[in-house]
Amino acid sequence: MLRNSFQTRIASVLVLLLLVVIAALYVAVQTATSAAVRAQAREQLEVGSLVFQQLLEVRGRQLHDAVQVLAADFGFKEALASDDRDTIRSALANHGARINAAAVMMLDLDGSLEVSTEPQISGAIAQRLSEQVMQRQREGVTIFLMPIAERIYLLVQTSVNAPLPIARVMMGFVVDQAFAAELRELTHLDLTLVASQQGQADIWISTLSEPQRLQLQASLSSATFDQVQRLAEQQYLGLQLSLAEGEGFAVQALLHKSLTQAEQAFAGLDRDILLIALAALLASLGGALLLARNVSQPVQQLAAVAERVGQGDYQVAIAMQRSDELGSLAKALQSMQTGIAERERQLAHNALHDALTGLPNRTLALERLGSAITAGRRTALLHLGIGNFRAVNDSLGQEGGDLALQQLGRRLQAALRPGDSLARLIADEFLLQLDNCDSDSAVAIADKLQQLLLKPLHIGTQDVILDCRFGIAAFPGDGDNPEDLLRRAGIAMQDAAQQPGRMQLYQRGRDDARQRQMLLIRDLRRAPESGELLLHYQPKLDIASGRVRQAEALLRWQHPQLGMVSPGEFIPLAEHTGSIQALTAWVIEEVMRQLAEWAERDLRVQVSLNISTADLIDPQLPQRVAQLLGQYQVPAEQLIFEVTESGVMLNPKLALQVLQDLRASGIGLSVDDFGTGYSSLTQLKRMPVQELKIDQSFIRELDEASEDAVIVRSTIDMSHSLGLKVVAEGVEYERSLSLLQHWQCDTAQGYLISRPLAAQAFESWLGQYHEAANREVHS
């Protein structure tokens, strides 16, 4: 029963596949046939259009030659000179009859009709006709088509000179049904000529049948001409030619090729395909049954072997001596058994080891740590992190970074004591498990390792020194389970980055600090949308005038659970986690909204705000700022963006371009925290800034005898020589303000003037300050 069912499935699959192949073949043949027919039809249409144009040119040359002969006829010129109308009419008729011209006319130089062999052409028509003809000749066209009355003419015009022009003659063929029939005989294409005239019915000349012509006429009147159209049960491929167009008229030609007639030549192909398909189905059904009978028995045998392999028995022998594909399958199955056994061993190893260094991974490290805790052995963990690994990776490339990690792993492994173990946790973090070791011993070991790792690694031709930091946690003092110990060692490693010796024991309570950081990082992403952010404004005093016209916008965060969070705490977290750009975007828009609100109350203040390093290298920032300026109708001059030199140095080319675009929009630019980091006069000159802000660390304790006095005074003089204004932040004492005024500093900012205030409080403070200043002036 199984064999018969298997045979049926094989037969069904083969028949189904054959049906799919036949169907695909049929579709492919039909598609190819249709494409070939259409391609051939297009080619015939292109050739037919050339034949049609050549036929018009031949007729046009006949007309041109005949009209030139007429214009040069001496007797005709004498008749014109003597105004002999009979002779003129006779000459026109004779010359027209020589080439079977349908119309020959003589016109005055002003276009008035004098004599015509075609009664339907009146003086008004001739006048219009002459104007159109002269326009064509000025355009360089010598042969042209025009509708006249109810007929279409191919026309040529020339002047009669004796020796100056005394008249004009025009000669033309009528383009009629006979002309269309002649073209059909030459090209085997149907032709339809359509001429439209202003104020008159269209002229139709076509070799199509009357029903087809009427259907085509209806389609042209309702829409544009389609290349493929169905006309009276036949499908046609068409080509549209614009033959002539002028004021009040147009002539176009439509060439048609019947696709239905062309496809009839392939009608017998469908019958042949069906016969071939039937024969193939019968043959495949018989062959499928025979094939299934030969295949089913060895397949059952192989299936039994595969079942035992699936149960984990990889030592089963396969007794099948065949030289065909099933024999190859048996050999492959035998090889698969061996391969699976080897890969399972390798997978078990890889699941617990790092692929790059071959060291145990986090999973195995936790297992070993758990075993030590279960056994109650004192154990210390050294969590090692590489602070400068990203810089190493950038300078050496990924391959060089991998080599550095491998060398570091070998160096650490060589320093292990018996019973200790080393694991690689993630890219740049390692874990040393020190058996039978307490915190004090772990510190001593970490110090030795620190000295060992100060020696440079040799990567190719370069020497690299890794900035390694150690966090230490011990069992049982710092935790009683593997996860807690590993987490606390990681916390200590992160704290070690702030220590001079790059080493830190776990401190109790740091879990709460770590949890607070994680909570802030998580909630910071939704703070702008949740309405938890607000701005405080700190006034900036114009020292020379004693007026307050500026303020700095300072960001504050009112956390729903933690209360007011210091900017010094959440700003670094935003910079490290990528949330800083969202905060900057909120600050910029909120400042513009506040400025617009103050403008409604006739309060104009220039506000400065800080731009992060990530924003400095965002080329879209100037465009977004410009959109917000237009949205809130705020003058760009009311904004000052404060940037740091270190932020510019991250990507100077892109940052300078962003600053130039911001400056071009009218926004003021200021260098913040000047003097605290890398300061370069060359870089400062390249930056399109108008203001320099001396860091508060130089201003807070400023007096004439302090070391900062020389720095501050020289900075002010240097800035003024560069054409920059100077802002001193952190002014808290009168003596500091007096010195700044004496040194001609431009602006002061600090608690001496005012602490940062909420928007409403700042507005009230500003009003009171100005009132007090005005009273002092008038007193």
Structure notes:
The structure is a single chain. With 779 residues, the chain is an alpha+beta fold. It has four domains: 36-287, PAS domain (Beta-Lactamase); 312-349, no CATH class; 362-508, Reverse transcriptase/Diguanylate cyclase domain (Alpha-Beta Plaits), CATH 3.30.70.270; 520-673 and 741-778, TIM Barrel, CATH 3.20.20. It contains 25 helices and 27 strands. Helix 1 (2-72) packs antiparallel against helix 3 (85-98). The termini are far apart. The mean pLDDT is 84. Its EC number is 3.1.4.52. InterPro entries: Cyclic-di-GMP_PDE-like, dCache_3, EAL_dom, EAL_sf, GGDEF_dom, HAMP_dom, Nucleotide_cyclase, Rev_trsase/Diguanyl_cyclase.
CATH topology of the largest domain: Beta-Lactamase
Instruction: Quote the beta fraction.
Output: 15-25%
Helix content: 40-55%
Radius of gyration from the alpha-carbon trace, in angstroms: 48 Å
Mean pLDDT: 84
> Helical stretch count?
25
**Number of structurally distinct domains:** 4
Strand order of the largest sheet: 18-19-21-22-23-24-25-26
Name of the CATH architecture of the largest domain = 2-Layer Sandwich
Give the end-to-end Cα distance, rounded to a whole number of Å: 118 Å
Question: What name goes with the CATH superfamily of the largest domain?
Answer: PAS domain
Runs in which pLDDT lies below 50 for 5 or more consecutive residues are none
The rough form would be described as flat
Structural class call reads alpha+beta
- Sketch the major β-sheet: 8 strands, mixed, barrel
Domain GGDEF: 377-510
GO molecular function: cyclic-guanylate-specific phosphodiesterase activity
Domain EAL: 517-770
Transmembrane segments: 273-292
